[in-house]
Structure formats: structure tokens, C-alpha cells
């Protein structure tokens, strides 16, 4: 039989920081069938965690920012004096936009085009939304190779967003909620959509890992009731709601500790400073603990009595939800987005009205008062997660989707795919 040459997949990650999107991408790349596919990962950001990718696949950092336009835009948005001169704000925004194109987008695009050409990529997998990954999608157009875009959040229906969503050959939303959003808001046809849940190496998430070292590191005693909000310090992740709930609970739950767990992207350092200022000003410094980024997440989850996801904007799926469920931890999440799709209220977790600090506080109080309920929810959650989010299932579905896209372009030869193994488009799936 003729030997099949592995097809080359170029992955492009342009997220705001090291969070769930890049973590799930690393799980995919690590477990990719190297007899079928050869991966290369390009990241717009760098740092120790990004550099670890080089141990798993070819990795290259291509800076996506040479000029800090985001900070400049934030300052101009707050500058009221610009409105005193008619048209000045519009002109300023246009200058910043063109500067972003010239000093950030264009160098990244040209470098990525050169990289993809030298790598001889057969397919480009953009790991984030089409707009922030427009360079990768345009590279695919220029090289005449298929592009797949991972969609991880709700999008608006602006003309610019509609243009960006016209670029990919196919979309892989991480939940049915995200799929519905892009169909309704951006008119993406169903035949270009395949829902694939994120996958994690659940075998490495040991529910028996001792979380005591994490508790000791944070000065959390055995008698303390530890509630943790896990996620990057970004405004929509809900840290302010979490602080509001802490204010309500500090005198109701003895020995309460509320932990804000996660690193801070460079764009959000002022947000972190504001949160810490609030905690000090409102007398919560003995209740709320900022841990910063923590690498050993199983120990973090197992060191918490309750895990919270409190995103004020709908979370597409949420690595926190998957990880905490897989570890059998009692979980509280907002009643919208991926959390509501993944969790069954009072069965695998508790849902609260999104953005409502009082509702969140009530659910935390319930789990404090009913430890047997917390134990039952955790056990049910683990069974559901192991059946739904296994990385092997995710990788198999993604690889079959790659095969479909490459076969459409006539790029796969001598490789027979069983029809039952192929991930069908959303409109053909029984689990729609």
C-alpha cells in the first residue's frame, strides 16, 4: 500500500492571554495522530507557558503587537476634551486604527504568510475568533488552502464581523449555544458548522490529588470554607460580582475565604489594581485572596470547597467548568452560555442568575449549609465530564473534520474514512 504523507496543520493562537483556549489547543496538539498530521503552533504572545509548546510540537512566536494601540484607545475613550472639537474623536480613532494596521497587523500578516509558506501548510486552524485571526484566514486565502476557525464566544452582527466570518471555510464552535449565536447573528450557514466540545486530558485530573499544599500556601486553615473563582482577570469573568457576593457572605459564613485565582493579561493590569483597591477599601482583605496564576490546577480545585464561574458575558464553554466537573468538585455557574449547556441545575452543579451577586451568594450559602448536596453534585459532575469531554473524543472529531476539509480540496489521497467516524455537520447530527 502507498505511504500517506502526514498533512501539515498550522495552528494560530491570538488570544488575549494564557487561558482556556490555548490550554485546550495544547491538549489537541499533544494527542494529534502524527501518522496523519504534523502540527505547527504560532502564538502572538510569548512567555514561559507558551514556550513549553516547543516540547510538544513545532512552535514559533510571531509578535502580534509592536505598538500598544489598546492602551491608547482606552485613554482616548476616556478623554472628554476630544469631544470639544467636532470630528476630532473620529479622526483620532481613525489614526489609531490605521496605526494598528500598519505597525501590528501588517508585520504579523507578512511574517505569518512567510511561515505558512515555508512550513508548506495544508490547512490553517485559527484557534480564536475570525476577526482577531483575520491575518491567518487571509494567509489561507492567499495560499489557497482550507481554513478552520474555532469559535469560542458570542459575536455581534456588525458589518466588520460579518466580513470576518465570511473568510473561513468551516467553523468549529465549542458549544451549541455558540453555534446558534453565529447562525442567528452572522448568518453562517449550517453546512459550514460542526460543533465540537473542547477536550481535556481528564486522566491527568486526579480527584484524589491533595489540595492541602495549595491551602497552606494561601494560609487557608482546615476550618476555613474556601470558595474560588477561577479565570483570567478580565472584566467579563465576573470578579466584581464575586467581590459583591463576598461582602454579603463574610458575616454569614464563619471562616469564609473567597479566592480570585488567575493571571492578569497585560491589557488588564488597571482592572486588577481596581479590584485590589476595592477589596482594601471595603474591608475584605481578610476574606478575599488574590493568588495570581497557578500552574497546578488540580491541586487548586481540590483545595477548594466550592468552585465558581461567574462570567457576566456568556461563556462559550469554559475550561473551568470542564476541569472542575472532571475533578468532581461542587460547581456554581451562571445560567447562560456554555455553563448552562454543560451543567444541570441541582444535579451536576448549581446555576445562578448571571450578574446577580445576591443569587451567587445564596448558592454559595446553600452548599455551605448542605455539604451532602455538594458531595452529590461533585460525583454526578465527574461522571458527566468523563463521558463528554475526553480528549480522545475531541481529537478524533477534529481530525475527521480536517480530513473532510482536505478531501473537499482534493488534498487527501489514499486515505479511506469510515462514514460513521466522520463528524457530521451540525444540521445532520442527531444531538442537535
Keywords:
alpha/beta; disordered C terminus; Rossmann fold; 432 residues; 16 helices; 13% strand; 2 domains; 6-stranded parallel beta sheet
Written overview of the protein:
The protein has 16 helices and twelve strands. The chain has helices at 20-31, 48-51, 69-78, 88-119, 134-143, 159-165, 176-186, 212-217, 239-249, 269-281, 297-302, 319-326, 337-342, 357-369, 371-388, 391-408, and strands at 7-13, 37-43, 58-61, 123-126, 147-151, 170-173, 225-230, 256-261, 288-292, 306-308, 331-334, 350-352. The relative contact order is 0.12. Helix 3 (69-78) runs antiparallel to helix 4 (88-119), helix 4 (88-119) crosses helix 5 and helix 9 (239-249) packs across helix 14. The protein is globular. It starts with 6 loop residues before the first strand and ends in a 24-residue tail after the last helix. By secondary structure, the protein is of the alpha/beta class.
